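Data deposition worksheet. Section B asks for the primary sequence of the deposited chain exactly as it was used as input, without tags or linkers unless they were present during the calculation. Section C holds the resulting structure in token form. Section D is free text for depositor observations; keep each observation to a single sentence. Incomplete worksheets are returned to the depositor.
Section A, Depositor: J.P.
Section B:
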Amino acid sequence: MLDEKELSQFLSGIEAFSGVSPETLAKLVSAFHERPCHPGEVVICQGARGTELCIVVEGELSVTIAYPGEPGGEEAVQTVREVATLKAGDIFGEI
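Section C:
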């Protein structure tokens, strides 16, 4: 876990926050909460209503899209395709 000073420094290195003053960064950091993720864990589901803006602090996240299977069988099998890999500093989600 990063402390508030480390998180402010981390954010200042991200292009989206590059013009933000240190005072404003400190206010933003106080509103953040860290959420560890585990391998294979779903962070955001396709089609779900988003309520958070997320920033990858360390590690990588795989972005996948599920496509419905072919109709006609008893069970349509979904196809999942990886479309991106998010790394430290990448922002995803929505507010």
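Section D:
The CA atoms of residues 61 and 86 lie 5 Å apart.
The first strand starts at residue 53 and ends at 55.
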